[in-house]
Sequence to fold (157 residues):
Amino acid sequence: MRDPRTSLNETDRHLLRLIQRDAGLTAEALGQALGLSASQAGRRRARLEAEGYVRATVARLDPAHLGLRVQAFVQVAMATHEPREARAFLRLLEARAEVTSVWTLTGEADYLLRVWCEDLPALNALIHGTLLSHPAVSRVRSQIVMDQPKRDAPLPV
Fold:
């Protein structure tokens, strides 16, 4: 199997680092930063997008401006791993806007959720009214984020 990282040259890597920090950079700005013409930079970016190196171009919103003051990580242990129940639980998570990321894990917890809520009562309602009330869930543990000294960083390219 081909290693995707080895098929990237340094210009490709530099371009990816730039657009991870600011996806709105124009072809002209990318060209200046890369020492290429705007059309060359635009074609290179389009190629990297077509090859799947770029999944999406999105904006990072400020949670505080949206009234989201509580970020938490929630560990969920399942009472059953029966496929139908597991799919129903995942559909529930997909339907909840405050659940922004879901990971499956090894160890004591089966899932790790990243959630954003307006306040502690909203987090409490999510945990007790939604997660713990699901028949497939046996235990929930939450950790409230006090601060995030390192923000979600770009991937190492």
Remarks:
- The first strand starts at residue 70 and ends at 78.
- The beta strands are 70-78, 99-104, 111-117, 137-144.
- The chain has a mean pLDDT of 95.
- The chain has two domains: 9-50, 64-144.
